[in-house]
Structures are given as structure tokens and as C-alpha cells.
């Protein structure tokens, strides 16, 4: 399967294509690398995900996509049956939302790639 087609097919079959396309673009990582070493890119806080390193980037992304992220978060919390602990500081919360969105997308992408 071609790399571009694999990513395209993922977006067609994922739980939230609108959000995940935006999250992917924000991450700014080459799909070839993610496909080869997916677990290296799972956690947004490692520095491997270029678009998720600086608060200036993550906070801007969260502000712009807050409703899409909150909807995904709500669905995730309903699925696991509990609320996640969230930071109380606004800037930390916005960063946390961006990281949640990235890791939620990566969880689905890794599962998709393993099939």
C-alpha cells in the first residue's frame, strides 16, 4: 500500500476525520517516519512531534479547534467511563488539549497501521 494512500485511508476510517486531519497537519511529522516507528511519535510531550513542542503552537491550535477537541475528549471519557484529570491553568489546559488530540489520533493511527 502506498504511504499517501495509507494516510488518506486512515482519515476516511478514523473516528474524527475533521479533527484528526488538523491534528496531523499541526504535528508536522513525516508520515514515512511515523509509519516506520509509530510508537516513537505517540506521546506529544517527547519533542518528536514538531508542531506540539511549544506552548505558542499548542495553545494556538487548541484555541482554534477547542470545540472539536472537547467533543473528542467527551466521547473518549464516555468510552472509558471516567473523566480525565485536567490542568486548572488556562495555558496548561490548552497545551493539554492539543496533546490529548495528538495522542488520541496516534492511538487510532497505530491501531490502523497494525491491521
Q: Top keywords for this entry?
A:
mainly alpha, single chain, 115 residues
Q: Give the overall pLDDT as a whole number.
A: 95
Largest β sheet strand count, sense and barrel closure: none
Rg on CA atoms, Å: 14 Å
Given helix and strand content, the structural type is mainly alpha
Order of helices and strands: HHHHHH
**Helical amount:** 55-70%
C-alpha end-to-end distance: 12 Å
How much of the sequence lies in strands comes to: under 5%
Q: Are there runs of 5+ residues with pLDDT below 50, and where?
A: none
Strands, total number? 0
Give the count of structural domains: 1
Number of helices: 6
- Global shape: globular
Walkthrough of the structure:
The structure is a single chain. With 115 residues, the protein is mainly α. The chain contains six helices and no strands. Helix 4 packs across helix 6 (90-114). The longest helix has 25 residues, at 90-114.
Please sum up the structure shown:
With 115 residues, the protein is mainly alpha-helical. Helix content is 68%, strand content 0%.
List the helices and strands and how they pair.
Layout: H1 3-13, H2 17-27, H3 31-36, H4 55-64, H5 66-80, H6 90-114
Helix pairs in contact: 2-6, 4-6, 5-6
Amino acid at each position: 500500500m502506498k504511504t499517501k494512500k495509507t494516510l488518506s485511508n486512515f482519515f476516511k476510517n478514523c473516528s474524527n476525520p475533521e479533527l484528526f486531519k488538523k491534528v496531523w497537519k499541526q504535528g508536522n511529522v513525516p508520515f514515512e517516519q511515523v509509519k516506520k516507528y509509530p510508537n516513537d511519535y505517540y506521546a506529544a510531550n517527547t519533542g518528536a512531534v514538531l508542531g506540539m513542542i511549544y506552548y505558542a503552537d499548542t495553545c494556538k491550535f487548541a484555541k482554534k479547534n477547542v470545540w472539536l477537541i472537547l467533543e473528542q475528549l467527551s466521547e473518549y471519557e464516555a468510552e472509558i467511563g471516567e473523566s480525565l484529570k485536567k490542568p486548572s491553568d488556562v495555558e496548561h489546559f490548552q497545551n493539554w488539549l492539543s496533546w490529548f488530540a495528538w495522542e488520541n489520533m496516534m492511538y487510532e493511527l497505530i491501531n490502523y497501521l497494525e491491521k
